[in-house]
Protein backbone atom coordinates (compact mmCIF):
# COMPACT_ATOMS: atom_id res chain seq x y z
CA UNK A 1 0.00 0.00 0.00
CA UNK A 2 2.84 2.38 0.82
CA UNK A 3 6.44 2.34 -0.24
CA UNK A 4 8.48 5.42 0.65
CA UNK A 5 12.20 5.78 0.05
CA UNK A 6 14.39 8.63 1.25
CA UNK A 7 11.32 10.80 1.86
CA UNK A 8 12.52 14.24 2.89
CA UNK A 9 10.94 17.59 3.67
CA UNK A 10 12.89 20.71 4.44
CA UNK A 11 11.04 23.95 5.17
CA UNK A 12 12.71 27.29 4.52
CA UNK A 13 11.22 30.23 6.33
CA UNK A 14 13.04 33.57 6.35
CA UNK A 15 16.47 32.72 7.70
CA UNK A 16 15.27 29.50 9.30
CA UNK A 17 15.64 26.02 7.79
CA UNK A 18 13.67 23.17 9.37
CA UNK A 19 14.56 19.63 8.37
CA UNK A 20 11.15 18.23 9.30
CA UNK A 21 11.58 14.78 7.70
CA UNK A 22 15.07 13.47 6.99
CA UNK A 23 15.00 10.75 4.37
CA UNK A 24 12.72 8.09 5.77
CA UNK A 25 12.08 4.64 4.28
CA UNK A 26 8.80 3.01 5.19
CA UNK A 27 6.59 0.24 3.81
CA UNK A 28 2.99 -0.52 4.75
CA UNK A 29 1.34 -3.73 3.61
CA UNK A 30 -2.30 -4.07 2.64
CA UNK A 31 -4.56 -4.51 5.67
CA UNK A 32 -2.03 -3.32 8.27
CA UNK A 33 -2.78 -0.82 11.04
CA UNK A 34 0.39 1.18 11.52
CA UNK A 35 0.90 3.94 14.10
CA UNK A 36 3.49 6.68 13.66
CA UNK A 37 4.50 7.52 17.22
CA UNK A 38 6.62 10.45 18.28
CA UNK A 39 6.69 13.68 20.28
CA UNK A 40 5.40 17.06 19.07
CA UNK A 41 7.40 18.31 16.11
CA UNK A 42 8.88 14.87 15.31
CA UNK A 43 7.70 15.05 11.69
CA UNK A 44 4.65 12.76 11.83
CA UNK A 45 2.14 15.15 10.24
CA UNK A 46 4.64 16.27 7.61
CA UNK A 47 5.19 12.63 6.65
CA UNK A 48 1.45 12.04 6.43
CA UNK A 49 0.93 15.17 4.37
CA UNK A 50 3.58 13.98 1.89
CA UNK A 51 2.05 10.49 1.72
CA UNK A 52 -1.39 11.98 1.07
CA UNK A 53 0.01 14.23 -1.70
CA UNK A 54 -0.86 17.42 0.20
CA UNK A 55 2.79 18.42 0.46
CA UNK A 56 5.48 17.94 -2.14
CA UNK A 57 8.58 16.13 -0.82
CA UNK A 58 11.89 17.99 -1.02
CA UNK A 59 13.51 14.68 -1.99
CA UNK A 60 12.76 10.99 -2.11
CA UNK A 61 9.83 9.04 -3.50
CA UNK A 62 6.59 7.58 -2.23
CA UNK A 63 4.18 5.23 -3.89
CA UNK A 64 0.77 5.13 -2.26
CA UNK A 65 -1.91 2.62 -3.34
CA UNK A 66 0.17 2.02 -6.45
CA UNK A 67 0.62 5.67 -7.50
CA UNK A 68 3.53 8.04 -7.19
CA UNK A 69 2.53 10.92 -4.89
CA UNK A 70 4.33 13.56 -6.95
CA UNK A 71 3.47 12.38 -10.44
CA UNK A 72 -0.09 11.16 -9.84
CA UNK A 73 -1.49 13.06 -6.85
CA UNK A 74 -5.10 12.89 -8.11
CA UNK A 75 -4.91 9.10 -8.39
CA UNK A 76 -3.47 8.90 -4.88
CA UNK A 77 -6.30 11.08 -3.53
CA UNK A 78 -8.93 8.91 -5.18
CA UNK A 79 -7.59 5.91 -3.26
CA UNK A 80 -7.26 7.39 0.21
CA UNK A 81 -9.24 8.91 3.03
CA UNK A 82 -7.45 11.56 5.08
CA UNK A 83 -8.62 12.79 8.44
CA UNK A 84 -6.45 15.69 9.52
CA UNK A 85 -5.97 17.24 12.94
CA UNK A 86 -8.69 19.87 12.55
CA UNK A 87 -12.36 19.00 12.18
CA UNK A 88 -13.33 18.41 8.57
CA UNK A 89 -16.96 19.48 8.75
CA UNK A 90 -18.17 23.05 8.17
CA UNK A 91 -19.51 24.22 11.52
CA UNK A 92 -22.87 25.58 10.38
CA UNK A 93 -23.68 22.78 7.92
CA UNK A 94 -25.94 19.89 8.71
CA UNK A 95 -24.36 16.48 9.17
CA UNK A 96 -26.16 14.84 6.25
CA UNK A 97 -25.35 17.75 3.90
CA UNK A 98 -21.68 17.47 4.84
CA UNK A 99 -21.65 13.80 3.92
CA UNK A 100 -23.52 14.36 0.67
CA UNK A 101 -21.22 17.22 -0.31
CA UNK A 102 -18.22 15.02 0.32
CA UNK A 103 -19.76 12.32 -1.88
CA UNK A 104 -20.37 14.86 -4.67
CA UNK A 105 -16.81 16.08 -4.28
CA UNK A 106 -15.61 12.56 -5.00
CA UNK A 107 -17.86 12.33 -8.04
CA UNK A 108 -20.41 9.89 -6.62
CA UNK A 109 -23.94 9.98 -8.04
CA UNK A 110 -26.81 10.99 -5.74
CA UNK A 111 -28.10 7.44 -5.23
CA UNK A 112 -24.60 6.26 -4.37
CA UNK A 113 -23.73 9.07 -1.97
CA UNK A 114 -27.12 8.87 -0.23
CA UNK A 115 -26.70 5.13 0.27
CA UNK A 116 -23.10 5.50 1.45
CA UNK A 117 -23.97 8.34 3.87
CA UNK A 118 -26.79 6.27 5.40
CA UNK A 119 -24.48 3.28 5.78
CA UNK A 120 -21.75 5.32 7.46
CA UNK A 121 -24.17 7.16 9.75
CA UNK A 122 -25.38 3.80 10.99
CA UNK A 123 -21.91 2.23 11.23
CA UNK A 124 -20.44 5.18 13.14
CA UNK A 125 -23.36 5.53 15.52
CA UNK A 126 -24.44 8.89 14.13
CA UNK A 127 -28.02 7.86 13.38
CA UNK A 128 -30.52 10.53 14.45
CA UNK A 129 -27.97 13.35 14.07
CA UNK A 130 -28.48 13.86 10.32
CA UNK A 131 -30.22 17.21 10.70
CA UNK A 132 -28.01 18.60 13.44
CA UNK A 133 -25.36 21.18 12.57
CA UNK A 134 -21.74 20.11 12.95
CA UNK A 135 -21.16 22.75 15.63
CA UNK A 136 -23.87 21.22 17.82
CA UNK A 137 -22.14 17.81 17.99
CA UNK A 138 -19.98 16.65 20.89
CA UNK A 139 -16.22 16.29 20.35
CA UNK A 140 -16.50 12.51 19.96
CA UNK A 141 -19.46 12.76 17.55
CA UNK A 142 -17.56 15.32 15.47
CA UNK A 143 -14.54 13.06 15.25
CA UNK A 144 -16.78 10.17 14.16
CA UNK A 145 -18.29 12.45 11.52
CA UNK A 146 -14.72 13.18 10.37
CA UNK A 147 -14.15 9.44 10.01
CA UNK A 148 -17.39 9.12 8.03
CA UNK A 149 -16.31 11.99 5.75
CA UNK A 150 -12.95 10.28 5.22
CA UNK A 151 -14.69 7.05 4.22
CA UNK A 152 -17.28 8.41 1.77
CA UNK A 153 -15.20 7.41 -1.26
CA UNK A 154 -14.65 3.77 -0.10
CA UNK A 155 -10.89 4.28 0.28
CA UNK A 156 -8.76 1.15 0.63
CA UNK A 157 -6.28 3.26 2.65
CA UNK A 158 -7.18 5.59 5.51
CA UNK A 159 -4.87 8.16 7.10
CA UNK A 160 -5.74 9.58 10.51
CA UNK A 161 -3.67 12.41 11.97
CA UNK A 162 -3.97 12.26 15.77
CA UNK A 163 -7.56 11.02 15.63
CA UNK A 164 -8.18 11.05 19.38
CA UNK A 165 -6.30 14.17 20.53
CA UNK A 166 -8.56 16.36 22.64
CA UNK A 167 -11.12 13.64 23.34
CA UNK A 168 -11.88 12.43 26.85
CA UNK A 169 -10.97 8.79 27.67
CA UNK A 170 -14.52 7.56 27.07
CA UNK A 171 -14.79 9.23 23.66
CA UNK A 172 -11.29 7.97 22.78
CA UNK A 173 -12.25 4.39 23.55
CA UNK A 174 -15.50 4.80 21.64
CA UNK A 175 -13.73 6.19 18.56
CA UNK A 176 -11.28 3.29 18.63
CA UNK A 177 -14.13 0.83 18.76
CA UNK A 178 -15.58 2.44 15.67
CA UNK A 179 -12.27 2.53 13.84
CA UNK A 180 -11.85 -1.19 14.61
CA UNK A 181 -15.36 -1.92 13.37
CA UNK A 182 -14.78 0.07 10.16
CA UNK A 183 -11.61 -1.86 9.57
CA UNK A 184 -13.34 -5.18 9.99
CA UNK A 185 -16.25 -4.16 7.82
CA UNK A 186 -14.28 -2.64 4.94
CA UNK A 187 -10.87 -4.33 5.33
CA UNK A 188 -8.97 -1.06 5.08
CA UNK A 189 -5.30 -0.36 5.61
CA UNK A 190 -4.93 2.31 8.32
CA UNK A 191 -2.01 4.64 8.99
CA UNK A 192 -2.31 7.00 11.92
CA UNK A 193 -0.22 9.30 14.04
CA UNK A 194 -0.45 9.54 17.79
CA UNK A 195 1.50 10.57 20.80
CA UNK A 196 -0.65 8.43 23.08
CA UNK A 197 1.59 5.51 24.02
CA UNK A 198 -1.24 3.30 25.26
CA UNK A 199 -3.11 3.72 21.99
CA UNK A 200 -0.14 2.75 19.90
CA UNK A 201 0.52 -0.21 22.17
CA UNK A 202 -3.06 -1.51 22.28
CA UNK A 203 -4.31 -0.74 18.79
CA UNK A 204 -1.44 -0.79 16.32
CA UNK A 205 -0.04 -3.92 14.77
CA UNK A 206 3.12 -2.00 13.95
CA UNK A 207 4.63 1.09 15.48
CA UNK A 208 6.98 3.38 13.58
CA UNK A 209 8.79 5.54 16.12
CA UNK A 210 9.77 8.95 14.71
CA UNK A 211 12.05 11.44 16.40
CA UNK A 212 13.64 14.58 14.93
CA UNK A 213 12.44 13.65 11.43
CA UNK A 214 13.95 10.16 11.47
CA UNK A 215 12.56 6.67 11.98
CA UNK A 216 14.35 5.29 15.00
CA UNK A 217 12.41 2.02 15.30
CA UNK A 218 9.85 0.11 13.27
CA UNK A 219 8.35 -3.12 14.65
CA UNK A 220 5.37 -4.59 16.48
CA UNK A 221 4.77 -3.18 19.98
CA UNK A 222 5.87 -6.46 21.57
CA UNK A 223 9.04 -6.66 19.45
CA UNK A 224 9.90 -3.07 20.38
CA UNK A 225 9.46 -3.81 24.07
CA UNK A 226 11.40 -7.06 23.84
CA UNK A 227 14.31 -5.50 21.93
CA UNK A 228 14.53 -2.07 23.54
CA UNK A 229 13.42 -2.39 27.14
CA UNK A 230 13.13 -4.83 30.00
CA UNK A 231 10.44 -5.86 32.44
CA UNK A 232 11.24 -5.07 36.04
CA UNK A 233 10.68 -7.62 38.82
CA UNK A 234 10.86 -6.15 42.33
CA UNK A 235 11.03 -8.47 45.34
CA UNK A 236 11.21 -7.64 49.01
CA UNK A 237 13.21 -10.45 50.57
CA UNK A 238 13.27 -11.13 54.29
CA UNK A 239 15.42 -13.41 56.41
CA UNK A 240 14.21 -16.93 55.83
CA UNK A 241 13.12 -19.57 58.22
CA UNK A 242 11.14 -21.96 56.07
CA UNK A 243 11.72 -23.83 52.84
CA UNK A 244 15.16 -25.22 52.18
CA UNK A 245 17.05 -23.25 54.81
CA UNK A 246 19.47 -25.45 56.66
CA UNK A 247 17.99 -26.00 60.11
CA UNK A 248 19.21 -23.67 62.75
CA UNK A 249 20.49 -21.07 60.28
CA UNK A 250 18.76 -17.82 59.74
CA UNK A 251 19.86 -16.59 56.32
CA UNK A 252 20.11 -12.87 56.08
CA UNK A 253 19.16 -11.21 52.83
CA UNK A 254 21.86 -8.62 53.34
CA UNK A 255 24.20 -11.46 52.61
CA UNK A 256 24.34 -10.28 49.05
CA UNK A 257 26.48 -13.13 47.77
CA UNK A 258 23.93 -15.71 48.97
CA UNK A 259 21.07 -13.77 47.45
CA UNK A 260 22.84 -13.47 44.12
CA UNK A 261 23.75 -17.15 44.12
CA UNK A 262 20.10 -18.03 44.72
CA UNK A 263 19.05 -15.93 41.72
CA UNK A 264 22.00 -16.77 39.46
CA UNK A 265 20.32 -19.56 37.52
CA UNK A 266 17.65 -17.29 35.99
CA UNK A 267 18.02 -14.61 33.32
CA UNK A 268 18.28 -10.85 33.71
CA UNK A 269 20.37 -8.39 35.65
CA UNK A 270 20.03 -8.63 39.44
CA UNK A 271 20.46 -5.51 41.57
CA UNK A 272 20.06 -5.19 45.32
CA UNK A 273 19.24 -2.06 47.27
CA UNK A 274 21.84 -0.85 49.69
CA UNK A 275 19.16 -0.21 52.30
CA UNK A 276 18.27 -2.97 54.74
CA UNK A 277 15.05 -2.59 56.78
CA UNK A 278 15.04 -2.91 60.58
CA UNK A 279 13.73 -6.46 60.23
CA UNK A 280 16.51 -7.36 57.83
CA UNK A 281 14.41 -7.19 54.63
CA UNK A 282 15.87 -5.74 51.50
CA UNK A 283 14.73 -5.03 47.97
CA UNK A 284 16.00 -6.95 44.97
CA UNK A 285 15.34 -5.83 41.40
CA UNK A 286 15.69 -7.99 38.31
CA UNK A 287 15.64 -6.43 34.83
CA UNK A 288 14.60 -9.12 32.40
CA UNK A 289 13.00 -9.62 29.03
CA UNK A 290 10.63 -12.22 30.49
CA UNK A 291 9.26 -10.83 33.73
CA UNK A 292 6.14 -12.99 33.66
CA UNK A 293 8.15 -16.24 33.93
CA UNK A 294 11.11 -14.81 35.83
CA UNK A 295 8.92 -13.66 38.72
CA UNK A 296 7.67 -17.12 39.84
CA UNK A 297 11.12 -18.63 39.12
CA UNK A 298 12.82 -16.07 41.36
CA UNK A 299 10.31 -16.55 44.19
CA UNK A 300 10.86 -20.31 44.06
CA UNK A 301 14.66 -19.99 43.89
CA UNK A 302 14.68 -17.68 46.91
CA UNK A 303 12.35 -20.00 48.84
CA UNK A 304 14.57 -23.00 48.12
CA UNK A 305 17.62 -21.02 49.25
CA UNK A 306 15.87 -20.28 52.50
CA UNK A 307 14.74 -16.69 52.06
CA UNK A 308 11.19 -15.46 52.62
CA UNK A 309 9.70 -13.32 49.86
CA UNK A 310 7.53 -10.72 51.51
CA UNK A 311 6.21 -9.01 48.37
CA UNK A 312 6.64 -9.28 44.63
CA UNK A 313 5.80 -6.90 41.81
CA UNK A 314 6.10 -7.12 38.04
CA UNK A 315 6.21 -3.98 35.93
CA UNK A 316 6.08 -4.89 32.28
CA UNK A 317 7.93 -2.80 29.73
CA UNK A 318 5.96 0.00 28.06
CA UNK A 319 6.48 1.87 24.81
CA UNK A 320 7.63 4.83 26.93
CA UNK A 321 10.51 2.67 28.21
CA UNK A 322 11.30 1.91 24.56
CA UNK A 323 11.30 5.61 23.67
CA UNK A 324 13.41 6.42 26.73
CA UNK A 325 15.95 3.76 25.82
CA UNK A 326 16.13 4.90 22.21
CA UNK A 327 16.30 8.65 22.82
CA UNK A 328 17.17 9.21 26.47
CA UNK A 329 13.89 11.16 26.83
CA UNK A 330 10.45 10.20 28.10
CA UNK A 331 7.69 10.60 25.54
CA UNK A 332 5.12 10.56 28.34
CA UNK A 333 6.74 13.58 29.97
CA UNK A 334 7.15 15.43 26.67
CA UNK A 335 3.48 14.87 25.79
CA UNK A 336 2.47 16.16 29.22
N1 LIG B 1 4.80 24.82 6.94
C1 LIG B 1 5.83 24.74 7.76
N2 LIG B 1 6.80 25.66 7.77
C2 LIG B 1 7.87 25.58 8.57
N3 LIG B 1 8.07 24.58 9.47
C3 LIG B 1 7.14 23.62 9.52
C4 LIG B 1 5.97 23.64 8.70
N4 LIG B 1 5.23 22.53 8.98
C5 LIG B 1 5.89 21.86 9.95
N5 LIG B 1 7.04 22.53 10.28
C6 LIG B 1 8.04 22.10 11.27
O1 LIG B 1 8.44 20.77 10.95
C7 LIG B 1 8.66 20.02 12.14
C8 LIG B 1 7.79 18.78 12.12
O2 LIG B 1 6.43 19.17 12.26
P1 LIG B 1 5.23 18.12 12.22
O3 LIG B 1 3.97 18.90 12.28
O4 LIG B 1 5.42 17.20 11.08
O5 LIG B 1 5.46 17.33 13.57
P2 LIG B 1 4.51 16.30 14.30
O6 LIG B 1 5.35 15.15 14.69
O7 LIG B 1 3.32 16.01 13.47
O8 LIG B 1 4.06 17.11 15.59
P3 LIG B 1 2.63 17.21 16.33
O9 LIG B 1 2.50 15.95 17.13
O10 LIG B 1 2.79 18.41 17.19
O11 LIG B 1 1.59 17.36 15.28
C9 LIG B 1 8.36 20.97 13.29
O12 LIG B 1 9.58 21.53 13.72
C10 LIG B 1 7.47 22.01 12.67
O13 LIG B 1 7.57 23.25 13.35
From TrEMBL:
GO MF term set: ATP binding; ATP hydrolysis activity
Entry keyword ATP-binding: yes
GO cellular component: plasma membrane
Domain ABC transporter, first and last residues per copy: 2-237
Topology relative to the membrane: Peripheral membrane protein
Keywords: Antibiotic resistance, ATP-binding, Nucleotide-binding, Transport
Keyword check for Transmembrane helix: no
Subcellular location: Cell membrane
GO biological process: response to antibiotic
SMART domains assigned: AAA
Main location: membrane
Protein name as annotated: ATP-binding cassette domain-containing protein
UniProt organism field: Cellulosimicrobium arenosum
Lineage of the species this protein comes from: Bacteria, Bacillati, Actinomycetota, Actinomycetes, Micrococcales
Amino acid sequence: MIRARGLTKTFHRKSETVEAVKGIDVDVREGELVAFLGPNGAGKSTTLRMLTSLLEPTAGTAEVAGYDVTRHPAHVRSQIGFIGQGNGGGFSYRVLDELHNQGRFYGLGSAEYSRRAAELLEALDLGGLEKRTVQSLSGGQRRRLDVALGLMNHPPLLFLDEPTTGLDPHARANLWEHIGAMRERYGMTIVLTTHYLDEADDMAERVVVIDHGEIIADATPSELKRDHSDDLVTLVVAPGSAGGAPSGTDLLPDDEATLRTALASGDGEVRTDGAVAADGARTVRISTAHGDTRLPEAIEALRVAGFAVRSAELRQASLDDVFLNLTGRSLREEAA
